[in-house]
Backbone:
């Protein structure tokens, strides 16, 4: 992104925010490739245009290029760092390879050690592939062994395009392409993703509540309490989590960076107007109104909301072809953990920490509630 465009972007973005906290999330590709000087300039511009608002910065990296200089800079400017690590070496190196085909596990683990050395605030973003989903406790226990406290699991779901066998190489189907349901061999199987989350949750709820924070579980509790979803995936509507490209083009979603989903450019449009365009065009509202009947009648609807619209391409027993691909997994997971969410909600309503739920596996939980 050129300096002129960066300046306009930052000014536009800050002025468009209705809240006092303005959050910048830097992603790629690999955003570290932009260099420290780029982010130093961004911080200068943020200070110039922040006014009375508070600025926060997050960066999502694959961790392979982190150095002492990088971590010192990120610490100095209070960046929150997301690092991509998929689990133990055998699972991580299946798909996280460099341009020579070599696994990147050692490089990423070195990056993780640097984040810990500099006491940076960080979380681990773990992709759940077909293979990963079959090793839930191997993955979770590995993260615990590495003293990782904040984890987010992201299911990998990619559809193959009809043109995937052409001379143009591997191609994925776009969100607008209907009638294509074949996924890649590494895409997670829906119900197996639910089993993966359940296995990790059952381990976590017995031993690690309040010590390890799995974002997927935090989202579920948040929905159960009745709060709006903090993530677009499980929100009733979407279209506010826009993505900005290096040329200033803005898209309604980082999963929909295709020409037909472009909603403007920071050089010509305010973020306020572009968000309005995103919502009025039906992108966000259609997530809710376009839900198939199975979803509308599902007991897990308020927690799930059909997941990401990009993954709404499967067929159900009624031959409806826009059913969420991960439906079986999400439904299984959310219904399985309801009993735990009920207890945690009761604890919180009694001004007790949710971690007290672990006592329920040692003895009657109500004794502690009544003792309070």
Residues:
């Amino acid at each position: 992104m050129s300096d002129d465009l960066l300046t306009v972007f930052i000014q536009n973005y800050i002025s468009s925010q209705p809240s006092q906290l303005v959050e910048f999330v830097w992603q790629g590709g690999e955003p570290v490739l932009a260099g420290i000087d780029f982010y130093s300039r961004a911080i200068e511009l943020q200070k110039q245009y922040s006014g009375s608002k508070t600025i926060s910065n997050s960066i999502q990296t694959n961790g392979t290029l982190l150095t002492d200089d990088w971590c010192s800079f990120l610490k100095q400017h209070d960046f929150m760092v997301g690092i991509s690590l998929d689990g133990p070496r055998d699972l991580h190196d299946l798909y996280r390879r460099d341009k020579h085909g070599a696994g990147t596990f050692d490089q990423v683990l070195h990056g993780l050690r640097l984040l810990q050395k500099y006491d940076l605030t960080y979380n681990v973003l773990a992709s759940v592939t077909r293979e990963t989903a079959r090793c839930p406790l191997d993955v979770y226990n590995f993260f615990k062994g590495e003293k990782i406290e904040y984890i987010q699991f992201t299911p990998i779901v990619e559809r193959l395009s009809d043109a995937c066998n052409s001379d143009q190489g591997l191609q994925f189907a776009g969100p607008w392409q209907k009638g294509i349901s074949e996924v890649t061999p590494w895409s997670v199987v829906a119900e197996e993703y639910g089993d993966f989350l359940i296995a990790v949750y059952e381990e976590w709820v017995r031993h690690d509540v309040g010590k390890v924070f799995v974002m997927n579980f935090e989202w579920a509790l948040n929905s159960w309490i009745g709060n709006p979803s903090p993530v677009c995936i499980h929100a009733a509507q979407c279209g506010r989590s826009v993505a900005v490209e290096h040329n200033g083009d803005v898209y309604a979603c980082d999963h929909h960076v295709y020409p037909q989903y472009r909603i403007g450019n920071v050089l010509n449009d305010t973020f306020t107007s572009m968000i309005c365009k995103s919502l009025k065009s039906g992108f966000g509202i259609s997530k809710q109104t376009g839900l198939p009947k199975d979803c509308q009648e599902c007991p897990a609807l308020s927690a799930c909301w059909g997941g990401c619209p990009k993954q709404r391409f499967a067929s159900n027993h009624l031959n409806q072809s826009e059913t969420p691909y991960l439906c079986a997994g999400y439904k299984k997971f959310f219904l399985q953990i309801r009993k735990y969410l009920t207890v945690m909600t009761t604890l919180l309503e009694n001004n007790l920490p949710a971690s007290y739920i672990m006592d329920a596996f040692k003895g009657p939980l109500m004794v502690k509630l009544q003792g309070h």
Observations:
- The chain has 15 helices and eleven strands.
- The CA atoms of residues 63 and 111 lie 5 Å apart.
- The radius of gyration is 22 Å.
- The longest helix spans residues 190-207.
